[in-house]
Amino acid sequence: AQSVTQLDSHVSVSEGTPVLLRCNYSSSYSPSLFWYVQHPNKGLQLLLKYTSAATLVKGINGFEAEFKKSETSFHLTKPSAHMSDAAEYFCVVSDWDSSYKLIFGSGTRLLVRP
Amino acid sequence: DAGVIQSPRHEVTEMGQEVTLRCKPISGHDYLFWYRQTMMRGLELLIYFNNNVPIDDSGMPEDRFSAKMPNASFSTLKIQPSEPRDSAVYFCASSFAGQGNQPQHFGDGTRLSIL
Questions:
Q1: Quick check: B112 and B19 in contact, CB under 8 A?
Q2: Residues of B in contact with A32 (CB under 8 A)
């Protein structure tokens, strides 16, 4: 069975400083991994996806993530935080066993201080 | 392109009433998913369809919940009778299987409050 663990429930950074949101996964297969962002009162928006092409994946709004098979990690980073990045972020693994079901992490709330 | 469209955005109703949530997936997508999000339990998959056929409804909480997809462009999630513990945000998502695993695209959700 596949699973995903987000290591921090809350992360607080100052505007203009780097962002690191950590995610570890467990998968029996070559996984598909995603990061989604959810702003207040909105649905989940896809930030980026990894599907066994390049290990460094670039997404929208300056975010990127690196797939590290040896560490079973897929951490999300951004060089410089903006106030508009404040939101909840979900790391997600695809469950190949069950036809495209997504397995969600518990989420990390990113706070950006002025 | 229009995204996944859900209606209503907010619903407030009294316990015991029937509630119907609606979803229009992205045109051409062949998978449709219904989720529920609460503070306590996070995001839970309730049911999903492939080509309008329910594939897995193991996440549906109980018989009070039912979902249908009469055609490729419309799905409903019904709760009858509703209870206060059903209060949550309900999301619909759709995806296109295509080649490999494609991401799901989410609607903005229906915020349901049962009094």
A1: yes
A2: 100-101
